[in-house]
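Narrative summary of target 7.
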Amino acid sequence: MSVTAPSRRLAGRCLFCQNLPIRPRVQHQQQRTAVFGRGKSENATTTEAQPSNNPVLDEYHRKNPSASSAQPQERPAPGDLAASSIFEDDHRAQRQQEEYAAAADGGDTGNTKVGGKARDPNNMLRVLDPDPNSRERWERKKVIQMVRRGGRLTDQQVIKRTEREHLVKSQNFKTSVKKLGMLARQIQGKTIEDAIVQMRFSKKKIAEDVLKQLEYARDEAVVMRGMGLGGVDRAAEENLNDTSPTVSGVEPMIPGRAEGNETPLQIQLKNGKRHTVADASKIYIDQAWVGRGPYGQLPDFRARGNTNILRTPWTSLTVLLKEEATRIREYEEREEKRRKAKVGKNLWVPLPDRPVQWQRQWYTF
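Modeled conformation, tokenized:
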């Protein structure tokens, strides 16, 4: 079959646009091999200098020279994160922090540029602090108070710094406030060891949970606050500190041990009972109270197919642990107050003895 002249002319052209030639597939594969293959030449690195085999692309570049001269999109460096990565924000913040540190090392004490933006520390403080004016007034007030007292601490501050205490709240127990309150009143005022013994031999069902809570509170107070460490064996302490230099005739002091602690001290509690203190660092339960928790629901099946809903209570136990040194201080304060109330205003206090510098007719300085 013979091909006519018009058919021969249209054989190498596109059917949709009759004026553009069709690129053979073999030629496209050869071009791709020449550009992206292993034997890539130096002239193939710049595609703008050589005309491509795509007439449509050449026509677009001819009409838009700015698009053809535009730089190609920058690819991320090897090992860098992509823009769509979930860690890109942290990476960007790290780069800004490094730029800020580099600007600070350069000696720029004023505004610094981080990420191309100037940042003033004073303006940032105004934004980050929710109420900067109130904070400045509070700081000024505290400084004035410290200056007026001359650096002296109040009685409450001295007590907080010299005496230890620890507050522990338990999880909710499946019992009522009335039942747990009786055990709280039973252990209040006792030493932690005596309270544990009371719960060990108690017939109450909830006493087992209270026993575990007391043991946990004791261990937590020892570890976190250092309570109850004054009664450790001194021989063991000396063995641990045998490498440290010691002064002959001077016994090393152990933190938490009161002076004269070898002889038991008889004190009177606030309720009038007598109490013997053998170790000033021994832990006792100063306060114990209960707190009402949420209510649960249980079905109560009744006669004739009826069902009631029972509200089961949950209750928590909170204990405040202190050392025997606190009870000794409170006992001394009560005795001093009782003595002053007994004597009243008739208490005569002699003036201190001072040398006479000079004498005058009516008074002497």
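The radius of gyration is 44 Å.
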